[in-house]
Amino acid sequence: MAKLVVDHVNKVFRLARERTELVALKDISFTVEDGQFYSVLGHSGCGKTTLLNMIAAHEKPTSGSLTIDGKPIVSPDWTKTIVFQEHALFPWYSVYRNVTFGLEMKRLPKSEIKEIAARYIDLVGLRGFEDRYPGELSGGMRQRVSLARSLAVQPLILLMDEPLAALDAQTRMFMQDELERIWERDRKTVVMVTHSIDEAVKLSDVILLLSPRPGRVREVFQIDLPRPRKETDPRFLEIKEQIRDLIFADFVESVS
Amino acid sequence: MELLRRLAWVRNLGLVTVVLIVWEFFSGYVFPRTNPSFVTLMPPPTAVAVAAFELIVSGELAMQAWASLEREMVAFAAAAVTAIPLGMAMGWWRSVYNQLMPLTEVLRPMPPLAWIPLGILWFGVGNTENEFIIFLAVFFPVLINTIAGIRSVDVKMIRAARSLGANEAAVLFRVAWNAALPQIFTGLRVGFGIGWMALVAAEITGARTGLGFLMWDSRNFLRTDIIITCMITIGILGLAFDQVLQLIMRLLLPWWREAR
Hints:
The complex is a heterodimer. By secondary structure, chain A is an alpha/beta fold.
């Protein structure tokens, strides 16, 4: 069980140089149910990464509360791990040791570490690459290692900060399918931040649309399409258009 | 053909050969007929080779070189084991940095050689004084590079480690330390080079052994051939040690080349 509740969260950055305040997030409330794939959609500067960093406890909200299963989020630990856009793998460790890092931090017995690492390296399809260094892998493979490393610690919530944004279009589409496959195998509560409507509709149970400056909840979409989802499905396209129209209307409003 | 390709680097010695031939021509052929005193000041390569051969056979060169190397190593090791932990602390904890930076900023620009007078008064002439000067020369490049290495660790990597359950010690010793290692090695290489330069000056002024001493002593007897032999030896040993450090770096940090 892992249910995330974000309750009336505000985040204000004080800009020391200009002596002004920047409201990054305003009155954000939402609930992520156990086992849900939840996406936060919005363009850059709408505060979505800040939101993710607060769930991971790398940043603190100015006001409001964040809880996992009723317990307030205080400090970063393995219960909520992040997959970063630029993977943030440790280049000095092999694929294997990157994946075992969190397990060693948990002080699990050696045999168990070996077994779990093998399972997750298998899951992301990297068997045979255990001894490679991240620098020797392609972008897509690095992102898989990053995913395996985060999943291996068995977090209550998996956080993903635009995990596929740094990949080329083809790899990206392939990795979306992979992400869906992996998530179906290892059902975690997931919060993913993205600016890609396609990606959000393809993967999520729920999409939270943020409007920018300050970031506010614009709309929440329940996506109940059967999986695996096809981009050509008329209903897929319909939802996409609905979201796009909303973003576009906001954009026109903000410019005029 | 394979053998030829392997020996291709020999071509790069072309200019060196020309310089040696011109030098030999002037010092060995022109000067003896026009201005013999020049030969004493700048003996031909063949004469230097003879001097070097004699010094090698008698064991004198090895003995003096070892005396120098030993000093360099003692000072280098002492500087590494003090500067690296201190640099890590300064790079990691803001308050340590704030307290120590004013001090280091004043001490760092002082040439190590400026410490020679005090060094001789404090430690007398001998190994300790020499090692003290070399220590100062090695210390600051290692310190500055360690601080910079620790401070430039990607914040995302630190966050990744924390959200994988790493505590403060694990973040420092398994993430920051590893991330900073390439730059720490750069500091060690630069430090060794500067230490090696300081060594000669330190030995000239305050030693009874070592390559610097041998050079200075030979000056009294106008043995320019020995002086040049010492200079070449210093150059070759410095180069060799730098190669060894690079080799150690490649062995310890196999990931480094790929990551760049």
